Amino acid sequence: MELINSHRELKVYQKAFKNAMDICHMTKGFPKEETYSLISQIRRSSRSVNSNIAEAFRRRQYPKSFLSKLSESKAEAGETQNWLVFSLACEYLSAENHRILDTEYDKIIGMLVIMQRYPEKWTIKP
């Protein structure tokens, strides 16, 4: 097993970052009246997924803090999925783009669950 030195090397971080960037680009086509509501909310929650993963990685020496940050990341992924449903319902997002992003967030949540189930693989012993 290769040693991971940075949160940027985690597949779950990379996937979350890609999704956040996809959302950023897609929301550029949303109506201007959504700037301070739907656009800002979905961008914030999607970016928070990988931000919390980065924080969790840096808190590996504190198992409870590590697990807490992973939980926050899962919650932000769920919130992002909620905003994706609104984006679809408002017809700002195509059904295909919604399906792709929603599926990707399900995968991210699954990866985070696995990290939480086996924290010893990630945490640092003091």
Task: Give keywords.
126 residues, mainly alpha, de novo design (two linked rop proteins), 0% strand, elongated
Radius of gyration: 15 Å
Give the overall shape. elongated
In total, how many beta strands? 0
Beginning-to-end CA distance, first to last residue:
20 Å
The CATH class name reads Mainly Alpha
CATH architecture: Up-down Bundle
Average pLDDT for all residues: 95
Number of domains: 1
Helix content: over 70%
Largest sheet: none
The CATH homologous superfamily is called 23S rRNA-intervening sequence
Element pattern in H and E: HHHH
Query: How much strand content do the residues show?
Result: under 5%
Q: Could you explain the architecture of this structure?
A:
The model has no long low-confidence stretch (mean pLDDT 95). This protein has one domain (7-121): Up-down Bundle (de novo design (two linked rop proteins)), CATH 1.20.1440. The chain contains 4 helices and no strands. The chain is mainly α and 126 residues long. Helix 1 (11-27) runs antiparallel to helix 2 (35-58). The protein starts with 10 loop residues before the first helix and ends in a 9-residue tail after the last helix.
